Amino acid sequence: MLVLEDLRFGYGRDALPYRFSMTAPRGAVTAISGASGSGKSTLLDLIAGFLTPEAGRLTMDGVDLVPLPPEARPLSILFQSDALFDHLSAEQNVALGLPRARQGERETIRAALGEVGLGHLDARKAAALSGGERQRVALARTLLRDRPLLLLDEPFSALDDETRGSVRALVQRLTIERNWATLLVSHNRDDVEAIAKRRYRLSERVLAED
Ligand SMILES: Nc1ncnc2c1ncn2[C@@H]1O[C@H](COP(=O)(O)OP(=O)(O)OP(=O)(O)O)[C@@H](O)[C@H]1O
Question: Does any ligand 1 atom lie closer than 6 A to the CB of residue 50?
Answer without folding.
Answer: no
